[in-house]
Amino acid sequence: MSIAIRDVREHELDSVLALNNAAGPAILPLDAARLRQLYDSAEYFRVAERDGAIAGFLIGFGAHAEHDSSNFAWFRERYPDFFYIDRVAVASRRRGGGVGRALYADVQSYAELRYPQMACEVFLQPGTDHALLFHGSFGFREVGQHAMHVENRAEHDVRAAMLMKPLCSYPWVRDTYGDALPGEPWLLHPRPVRTANRATGLRA
């Protein structure tokens, strides 16, 4: 069956929460209140649907968002403009079936029209080597490491590899269209952009 990528619906947040908290050490657990906060503020929050069920999701923010992640802050201290992948998860029964790649292809098609690069992190702990390999195969490269404090973990400081990927289409889009993309339906993202006005770059 094909994979459909679409915006999350509010009534699906419980399913997203369960998927997030079953994903293992590669992603931090959430509670319902935090997920609601992400739903209300994320620039990009999409799910992958396969066989009528949610098979994965991805949440992202532009560099000028009001987002309180310490990893996001690490990137913002060093880079003026980027799109940040806050978290991505794929249901265990769907791993290896192309769901993660479909989500990354979709988020890149969104981000490369609006931002010069994409950022994310991968935790450096047992069980996350596959995540480093996955991101490396997509062109992400390590630009540093960051230790973040995590409550309710045996080891409170979790070290992450901080990864960046240049988005090669962005300079041409910026030079060609300036501050406004054409009004084509496929270019308009259905989620409202709640981030602050950007000093540079494009907005749909």
From TrEMBL:
<dbReference type="InterPro" id="IPR016181">
    <property type="entry name" value="Acyl_CoA_acyltransferase"/>
</dbReference>
<dbReference type="InterPro" id="IPR000182">
    <property type="entry name" value="GNAT_dom"/>
</dbReference>
<dbReference type="InterPro" id="IPR016890">
    <property type="entry name" value="UCP028520"/>
</dbReference>
<protein>
    <submittedName>
        <fullName>GNAT family N-acetyltransferase</fullName>
    </submittedName>
</protein>
<dbReference type="Pfam" id="PF00583">
    <property type="entry name" value="Acetyltransf_1"/>
</dbReference>
<keyword id="KW-0808">Transferase</keyword>
<feature type="domain" description="N-acetyltransferase">
    <location>
        <begin position="3"/>
        <end position="165"/>
    </location>
</feature>
<dbReference type="GO" id="GO:0016747">
    <property type="term" value="F:acyltransferase activity, transferring groups other than amino-acyl groups"/>
</dbReference>
